[in-house]
Each structure stands twice: as C-alpha cells, then as structure tokens.
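Input (structure):
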C-alpha cells in the first residue's frame, strides 16, 4: 500500500514551516514510521497539522476556494500564518507501493487582491537512484508542462544537487512563462481553465498520467476521523455502506455491510473486538422488523444487553476504530485526532498497540497518523514514532522527533515509558 514518507507545511495557521520525515530536499532523512504520533500541549498546532491533511484532501475534491471556507476554516486570510505574505504550501513525499520510486508533490496557494484563493503552482518529481530527481509536472499560474507515462525531465540538471531545487524550479517557471517549450522535449503544454482547482484533480483522471492518477487516488483515499460518539448513536436509514464516514454516523450501515458481505469475518471480528473492550462479553447484532441492524453489547455484569444508543462514548469509539482497522479494504492513510477523548487509560494502550500492529502490515495495512496529549497513549510508543510539537518564541509551531534526543532514547531503552518522560517534562525543549 502507498505510504507517506514525509510531509511539509508552510504558512498554514501556526505552522509557518513544519516538516516531518523525508522530503525531496531532505532526502537523507528517514521516512515516517508506519504509525506516527504527534504530541504537544494545548495550542501548539496539533489540530492545525491534522487539518493540513484535511485541507489538502478537501482542495483536491472541491478546489482551494471551497476548501478555505469548508469545516469552519474561515477563508484564506484566516488560514495563512499571521503576518505572512508568502503562499500557503504543502509538500507530500510518498511511495505508491513498497518498491515504487518516491514521488514528491508540492503545491502553493495564494490569494488575489480581493482575497480569493487560487493555486499558484504544483510540482511533481520522481526520485531517482543516484541521480537528480525527474520532474513530471510543473504548473505555475495555471500553465505548465506535464510528462506522460513514466517520462520526466531532469530540469534540475543545472543545479548542484538538491539544495538548488528552488533556483531551478524558478528557472523552469520562467521558461514556461515565455513558452520556450523546446527546453522540455517530450512534454505537453497544458493550461487549466479554473485556477481554483488542483491540476492533479484534472490530470489524475487521465490514463496517460498514471503517476498523477495514483497520487490523486491515494489522497482521495485518506481517512480523517472527525468521529463523535453521539453521531454514531443515531439510527440512520437502513442500507449497507462499505466504509465508516468521517463523523462515524453511519456505524450501523457499515455493520450491516460487514454482516451481509463478510459474514464470517464479521462474526470473528465481533469476538475479537469484544475481547479487547474491558467489561464487554459479546457483541451481537439484532435485526429489527424494518430490516435495520442494532448493535447489542453484552456487559459482563448484566443479563440484558445494551444497545449502541446506551453505550459509553469510550466503548463506541473503540468499537468504531477497531471496525475501521478491520475494514477488508482499509484506507491507505488513517488520521485520527486525539483518540483519547472519553477513553479509559488501559484502553488507550490497547488502542495504541492495535494501531501499530495494523500499521506494520506493509502491504495491506493503513498508515496511521495520530495527534494526542495523552501520556498513556505515548507510553506504548517508540521515540521514533513520536514527534513533539512546541510553540516557538515567535508564536509559530516547531517540531522535533523524540528520538532526536539521545538521552530520551537511552531512558526508553532502559525501560522508562515515553509517556512518563513527557509527563515529567523530560521531552521539553532543552
Ligand atoms: N493564521 C494563524 N496564524 C498563526 N497562528 C494561528 C493561526 N490560526 C490559528 N493560530 C494559532 O494556532 C495555535 C494552534 O492551535 P491548534 O492547532 O488548535 O493547537 P492544538 O490542537 O495543539 O491545541 C493556536 O494557539 C492559535 O492561536
Ligand atoms: Mg487541538
């Protein structure tokens, strides 16, 4: 399955410049672990980082103008890091499969004089072994070039290694501006009709551009959980649905789908899940007269079962997460904000192990990205899996990997739990 190796955000809310893992310009960094957790106190930018993924997914789906206004984001100027005039920028470094060459996607978004956002530029590169990367999409102000199939151009040839990427990109941009296409043999000149839409949305629908299509599908498959237990308690209209939606209000529909399409697997899953939720003996389904499925939880101490509508927030939440992890066609990237809310601490450690176990299946497991401020969750993690967000003197977020500090690595190696270290301020910037 596809994996994100690195991610960079610039000028988005408090994230003036925050980078995690491996990027085109930082290709010596280690790629992100299959499970990544971002920790930090209140107000350091955890939600901003979570929303950076959400924003990018929304922008692909409905364009940057709509994405700036969606989910209460409040428009471009509220999103741009305060006091900054540079574009908002996202960079995703990813691999379409275990053996694929890493691909880097970079997009910049700015606004016109009246504050309406549009795409400033999009660049896609394919890393090469022991060679400069090959660019295969270069769009600037709605115009640019794209290379078909597996072609590309080492537009960076003139640059000395990766550090001069920006220089060579702007050189390439000026060539496109003057339409001197002979500089880009094998490339096709393109012009977008609507500058609020991402180029990858359009080009990613074409067979001629398999790398862009794969990336588009990858981002479309991201699952960002805005799960609220109350939503999951609703009694939606009957009808099986394949995947849990972002709010979790189709939990019963997914249960119906699983029961119908994967009956044996589903029964097995219910048994497994029941084992992992303390106090729960059995989980069963009951068909109502109007053909809906009710979820029944058998509590150890009680004779009569409880229905989802009566269950605790924590139980419902863990049930929904475990159901997600057991999806027969799981999303490639699973992003969960503060899974701890409403969960008992033991359950949290179980959940952390479940997420990690799931993420470690290279071929078919989702990559898991979590933001949290719960030490118990962090206890179950390795320093390489944990990134610490902080707020700098200037009010903007900074990030570092817990494993950057050898003292922390040593303490964890000696058996001290990472969450405990964080709790006692050991992980604070020194
Ligand atoms: N456009 C912006 N520029 C700079 N800072 C911002 C911007 N928008 C919000 N913030 C700040 O970002 C901080 C991070 O918030 P948030 O991501 O919700 O933190 P967390 O989820 O870690 O508690 C808040 O303190 C908020 O004031
Ligand atoms: Mg938050």
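Output (sequence):
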């Amino acid at each position: 399955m596809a994996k994100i190796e690195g991610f960079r955000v610039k000028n988005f809310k408090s994230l003036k410049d925050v980078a995690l893992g491996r990027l085109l310009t930082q290709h010596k960094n280690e790629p992100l672990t299959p499970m990544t957790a971002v920790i930090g106190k209140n107000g350091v930018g955890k939600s901003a980082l979570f929303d950076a993924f959400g924003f990018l997914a929304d922008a692909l789906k409905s364009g940057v103008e709509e994405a700036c206004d969606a989910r209460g984001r409040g428009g471009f100027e509220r999103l741009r890091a305060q006091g900054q005039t540079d574009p908002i920028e996202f960079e995703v470094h990813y691999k379409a499969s275990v053996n694929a060459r890493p691909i880097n996607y970079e997009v910049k978004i700015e606004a016109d004089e009246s504050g309406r956002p549009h795409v400033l530029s999009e660049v896609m590169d394919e890393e090469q072994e022991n060679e400069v990367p090959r660019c295969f999409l270069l769009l600037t102000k709605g115009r640019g070039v794209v290379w078909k199939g597996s072609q590309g151009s080492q537009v960076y040839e003139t640059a000395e290694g990766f550090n001069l990427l920006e220089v060579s990109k702007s050189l390439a941009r000026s060539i496109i501006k003057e339409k001197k296409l002979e500089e880009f043999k094998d490339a096709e000149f393109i012009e977008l009709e609507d500058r609020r839409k991402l180029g990858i949305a359009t080009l990613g629908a074409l067979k001629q551009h398999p790398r862009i299509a794969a990336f588009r599908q990858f981002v479309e498959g991201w699952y960002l959980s805005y799960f609220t237990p109350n939503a999951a308690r609703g009694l939606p209209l009957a009808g099986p649905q394949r995947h849990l939606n972002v709010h979790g209000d189709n939990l019963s529909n997914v249960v119906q789908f699983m029961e119908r399409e994967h009956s044996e697997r589903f029964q097995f899953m219910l048994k497994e899940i029941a084992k992992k939720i303390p106090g729960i003996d059995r989980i069963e389904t009951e068909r109502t007269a109007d053909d809906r499925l009710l979820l029944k939880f058998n509590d150890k101490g009680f004779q009569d079962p409880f229905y989802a509508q009566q269950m605790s927030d924590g139980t419902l939440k863990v049930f929904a997460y475990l159901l997600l992890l057991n999806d027969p066609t799981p999303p490639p990237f699973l992003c969960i904000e503060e899974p701890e809310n409403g969960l008992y601490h033991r359950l949290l450690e179980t959940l952390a192990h479940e997420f990690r176990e799931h993420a470690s299946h290279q071929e078919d497991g989702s990559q898991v990205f979590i933001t949290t401020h719960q030490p118990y969750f962090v206890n179950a993690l390795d320093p390489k899996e944990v990134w610490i967000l902080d707020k700098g003197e200037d009010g903007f977020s900074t990030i570092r990997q817990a494993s950057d500090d050898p003292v922390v690595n040593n303490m964890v190696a000696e058996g001290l739990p990472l969450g405990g270290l964080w709790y006692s301020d050991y992980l604070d910037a020194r």
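Notes: The two ends are 38 Å apart (CA to CA). Residues 13-14, 40, 42-48, 78, 80-82 surround adenosine-5'-diphosphate (ligand 1) (CB under 6 Å).
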